[in-house]
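Would you mind giving me a polypeptide sequence along with per-residue structure tokens?
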Amino acid sequence: MEISIRKAEQLPKQIEVLASLANQEGYVFIQRLIEEFQSGKNRFDQKGESLLLAFEGETLVGCGGLNQQWGDDGIEDRIGRLRRFYVHPKYRQYGVGKSLLLELEKLAKPFYSALCLNTDQKDAAKFYQKHNYVFVENHPNYNYFKYLIA
């Protein structure tokens, strides 16, 4: 399986397919990605931010975003946040998520000393733990964290 990772400047029409699949699984965050991108609320276009799309040929099979992490008193110092991370169910267990994650981490290193994210899904938690993200209890903004080593 040949997967290519591309930085998104715009959302492709195929994002609706991922949103539909995610909705069927009970995940609303891809629909939220579309709404926030279209409204301009979050286009992953600030310094140190990226939205990546994973394709097999011309078929969109996954996405993942990197934003600045906002804390209670503004931007948390040099922490990036992984968001809107989703892989098409038929493409899981083939390294698509790993490829997306590694590329996002590579893009993050010049800007951030650490990454965080929030998930309440067991399979997602296992995936992130496998990639050295550590569970954080009682943080108001995220529940997984990883220091990036340059």
About this structure: The chain has a mean pLDDT of 93. The first strand starts at residue 3 and ends at 7. The radius of gyration is 15 Å.
